[in-house]
Amino acid sequence: MSLNNKVVIVTGGSSGLGLAISKRMAKDGYQVLINYNSNEEGAARCRDEITKAGGRASIIQFNVSDREQVEASLEKFFGENSDAQLYGLINNAGITKDTLVGLMSDDDFKDVIETNLYGSFYLMRWSVKKMLLKKEGFVINMASLSGQVGNGGQANYAASKAGVIAMTKSLANEVGRRGIRINCVAPGIIETKMTENIPFLEEMKKNIPLRRIGKPEEVASVVSFLASTEASYMTGQTLSVNGGLYFS
Ligand SMILES: NC(=O)c1ccc[n+]([C@@H]2O[C@H](COP(=O)([O-])OP(=O)(O)OC[C@H]3O[C@@H](n4cnc5c(N)ncnc54)[C@H](OP(=O)(O)O)[C@@H]3O)[C@@H](O)[C@H]2O)c1
């Protein structure tokens, strides 16, 4: 199947999971729109790697938590590229601001919710309206194990990701009849910038049944499955990619 004019937006595609997912989507045949916020160099490198390998990719700057910026940038891109059909959205951009609740400032809480939850909402609302016109498409939201079971030191982050899971189920319910599938992936601990300073990592590995942390490509392959027609009867689901780890 040629997917070449079918565009998949990957937010936070300049590094970590978003980088691996962008490359995987391109390998699967989609045209990838790689979003970045601050790391233009990383996003450009990702685009160049994809095009060198024969795929199609562009980069786009916006801050996911700024609704006006999100909508204006996407309107501009799709206005200027009339052959491009928005087919998929991968809401991957995310941040942490970890600390105990007693020490957590209003801004620590607000920033994480605005980026992870509002950001996903802004992107989903804009994208799903376009997908409804074609009656096809998918959204994959990046949740987290913390959003499934909670995690001390991450009340803000866990709340944002639990919100993402609930929002996914709700939207799946709304748009399923129009042929649009909305799912989540919930990674455990994956080797990226976000996890490079996790304290007691070696100790934590002992609690992971697979005894290691995951690689970004191992999340990208699950995203690829959910995006594909192999997952055509799945919506509103959260697939865990965590080596068997459940925080206790
Ligand atoms: N790594 C893990 O163990 C793990 C586990 C569970 C869930 N996750 C989730 O997976 C996703 C990716 O995380 P990662 O580990 O790959 O982290 P990462 O390497 O720190 O990458 C985060 C990405 O998010 C982007 N981003 C942050 N704020 C943004 C904003 N306001 N607007 C647009 N982009 C923004 C960054 O873009 P710029 O650099 O361009 O600013 C960057 O590309 C996140 O949603 C995270 O919560 C990760």
Walkthrough of the structure:
The mean pLDDT is 96. This protein has helices spanning 16-27, 40-52, 67-80, 106-134, 145-149, 155-175, 201-205, 216-227; strands at residues 6-10, 31-36, 56-61, 85-91, 137-142, 180-187, 238-241. The chain has one domain: NAD(P)-binding Rossmann-like Domain (Rossmann fold). It contains eight helices and seven strands, in the order βαβαβαβαβααβααβ. The protein has 248 residues and is an alpha/beta fold. It has a seven-stranded parallel β-sheet, with helices on both faces. Bound molecules: NADP nicotinamide-adenine-dinucleotide phosphate. NADP nicotinamide-adenine-dinucleotide phosphate binds at residues 11-12, 14-18, 35-39, 63-65, 92-95, 115, 142, 144, 187, 189-190, 192-195.
